[in-house]
Every structure is written in structure tokens, then in C-alpha cells.
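Researcher: Please predict.
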Amino acid sequence: MSPHVRYTARNYSPARNRDNTDSMKRQTVITQKKRGPPPTGKGTLVGVRLQPDDLAAVDDWAEKQKEPHTRPEAIRALVRKGLKGKREG
């Protein structure tokens, strides 16, 4: 029967419906939503709050570099630079 046929007592056959559902098992698929962008690295996430003047200083430093840095790249570079200087001096 066409899916647009209205079932009435005259054209409805429970046996036909049962045969159809017995051969097709019902499957439930639950997909989990992925949140946020895909991970870009394997490092540990460290959340840091910066005051507006410190954040402006990071942004200014990033703009003055030969290669442009995103804010996270600039913070990583400054941390490396600070740690390197501490080991030497």
C-alpha cells in the first residue's frame, strides 16, 4: 500500500503490519553532540585571568613580532621566553 493510504477497518490488516515489523528490528541510535572546536594539541589547558593592562601588553607584544601571533601563541611564547631567561640568569 502507498504511504498515503488511510487505514480503515476494511483495508487494515494486523497480520500484514505484524509481518512487516517482525522482519525489521527497531534500532535506536543516540549520537552525542560534540562541544567546542576540535582539539588542536595534546597539552594541558591552563586558564588564566589577565587584567586589562596586562592583556593589552600581551597584544602589543604580539603585534610587534616579525610573524603575527594569536593571543594564545603570544602567551606561550612569552612564557617560554621568561622561563628561558630564568634558566640563564
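Model: Residues 47-89 form one domain.
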